[in-house]
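Open question from group meeting: does this chain pack into something compact, or does most of it stay loose? Before anyone orders reagents, we agreed to write out a predicted structure and look at it together. Recording both the input and the output here so the notebook holds the full record.
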Amino acid sequence: MSKFIGLDPKPKTAKVADDFESKILIRRNNKSLVSRVFVDIMEDEWRLAVGFNQMAISKLHGRENEFEVLYRYNPSEESKVIRLGTDTGLENDYTAGSFPSPDEFVIWAIGQEKEIQLSPA
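Structure tokens returned:
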């Protein structure tokens, strides 16, 4: 289940996040991985993180994700979104213009990640 900090998501935003978590299953290193979406909205920076992990039930202390992706956006700059993936260790900049609300940023970032994960390698 998605976790939102600093944002009471609109129903559409919550549905997009829940759909991503429940419908996107990827294969990495011969493992089936599911996702978990985390959103942290602060005044000076908006973040969306996706953790990918195996489908097994977590133990008491959980486990580390197989890999994670972080999208960062500074609403005062309104020009780019930075994506950092721990699977590659690379930062990618995306020209995104400005987002009228954090909900629009979340929907855009989830759509971007869905496109990346579902594209042929």
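Observations to bring back to the group:
DSSP finds two helices and seven strands in the chain.
The radius of gyration is 14 Å.
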